[in-house]
Structure prediction request, 272 residues.
Amino acid sequence: MFGHGLVQVFQGRHTVLPISRTEADITKREEVRSAFLKLRPDVVIHAAAIPSPDVCEANPALAYLVNVHGTHHVAEAASEIGAGLAYISSDAVFDGRKQHPYTEADLAIPHTVYGRTKLRGEQIVATLPKHWIFRVSVLFGPGKANFIEKGLRAIAAGEDYTVASDQTASATYTLDAAEKILDVVESGCHGLYHLSNQGACTRYELARHAAEVAGLDANKVIGVPSDLMGRRAKRLKYGVMEMRALKEAGFSLPRPWQSALADYLSHYLANL
Ligand SMILES: NC(=O)c1ccc[n+]([C@@H]2O[C@H](COP(=O)([O-])OP(=O)(O)OC[C@H]3O[C@@H](n4cnc5c(N)ncnc54)[C@H](OP(=O)(O)O)[C@@H]3O)[C@@H](O)[C@H]2O)c1
Prediction:
């Protein structure tokens, strides 16, 4: 999903060479290396991962293979050709115990396999002189069915849609985040950035708001505590991120999530 948005936005200003798993499986060092040696990009945007906390919790070996060893191969190959490397990370590097927004200076103590692999990925990428780390959260956007699209389709089909009522985070429209990544990468201001749309919401509020804007019955969105949802990996109760590094570097912040969501729905989910 995020790869799709990054390609869409970056190709407006740059030559983009999208690489999928077919061209380079990141768990295979030589495949990554030969792809980079052939294409010789100036900048690599690394969005590949096993992004499901439940899959990672159920299969830690796979999670470490892709999210950690894979990232190591990408970093090594980027370093060999002298490319800058932008890594997509997650609010899952935090434990969710804070009651007010996490800043880039907060200690990251992940409490899931997924979060630990993403933090290890950050540490690997941070060894490169030309690196950017963007922590995003609750992605929605075109390219792949996300939880908003799945929910709206279920409601449009007359079904209830059950979502967590107790997970507060910063929703992120992939196209808005990609625009900001483009600005930051072009500026050459390396480092760690929190990146999302502005404002905080629970999954329940996000799904309800999406149903209302789409003209569907918002009462079909049923909020339940995440612990009762039978998920394998623990979810962050609180993952709101303050975008302090972007502000301090003089970048404008992405618009509020409500406006981004309305834009996404009108462009991509108008005909449910
Ligand atoms: N979704 C969220 O809410 C969220 C929140 C915070 C951070 N993130 C991060 O954002 C990034 C993008 O996530 P997403 O939601 O866009 O996930 P996604 O749609 O599942 O995209 C992940 C991509 O990684 C590819 N991939 C997996 N294993 C690979 C391998 N061994 N070699 C090469 N490519 C491989 C997948 O290819 P296949 O399709 O072939 O499997 C897929 O194209 C990830 O780094 C994730 O950790 C996501």
Remarks:
- The chain is about 40% helix and 15% strand.
- Strands lie at 43-46, 84-90, 131-136, 139-140, 161-164, 168-169, 172-173, 191-194, 201-202, 221-224.
- The pocket of NAP is lined by residues 1-3, 21, 25-27, 47-49, 51, 66, 70, 88, 90, 118, 136-139, 144 (CB under 6 Å).
- Residues 60-80 form the longest helix (21 residues).
